[in-house]
Design brief:
The structure is a single chain. The longest helix has 22 residues. A hairpin with a 5-residue loop joins strand 4 and strand 5. It is elongated and about 80 Å long. It has nine helices and seven strands; from the N terminus they run H-H-E-E-H-H-H-E-E-E-H-E-H-E-H-H. A five-stranded mixed β-sheet has the order 5-4-3-6-7. With 278 residues, it is an alpha/beta fold.
Amino acid sequence: MALSQSALSELLDAIRAGGDTDVLREAMALVLQELIELEAAQAIGASRSERTDERTTHRNGSRSRLLSTKAGDVELRIPKLRTGSFFPALLEPRRRIDRALWAVVMEAYVHGVSTRKVDDLIAALGIDSGISKSEVSRICAELDATVAEFRDRPLGHIAFPYVFLDATYVKAHDGARVVAKAVVIATGVTRTGDREVLGLAVGDSEEGAFWTAFLRSLRARGLVGVRLVIRDAHEGLKGAIAAVLLGAAWQRSSVHSEAGPLVPISHRAESALAAAIG
């Protein structure tokens, strides 16, 4: 790519200015802007003020976009079009340095780090512009899409004769409140012993309707060949298995069977009873 005469002049002026100008940042801004202008011309079918038969629309001003790079923050101009839209490929999410930044934000999001602390973390990485709450939400929307793709994937590729069903309770935000939520998970086992997480869901409690809806979602995604379900003794789950996984037998898992007798006894006696059961 050859820089335009005006861009070369600006770059030369920056170099002559020496210590008063961050030459590396200025050079990067000029090169990136030229790439954006070139891509815009290709999308429009003509450069600025150029008349061609291939032109599809005209420019209509520009909007600014701040890009964080290793050389510092650079402000770029994104051309706006009279009809249609344009966004340069080099600024698309998760390209080059953006990948590491997105990974940091997603990891912090998964671990429940607040937006303010995420902003402090980004600043500590040397990105002075920081990151807004809306930007965090936009980045993590891609993570949500990845999770949704995993949860909704088809299951008909192989039979799972054995399915483990279990649940746990975790604290979660419900608006301004922190409440207990039931997280249920299904793990399938093939005839060759390979395990695969089939699905998970979050609900208010382990009531029968919730379990029934969860099992039906697995069936709708193609779960077949279930012969035996290993679960705890929850009555709602027992009824859901009978209603959805027709013909499948069930048994209580050894973990729940062994833990059950320990509930009403003292902590001092747990070790002795657990050893006797084992």
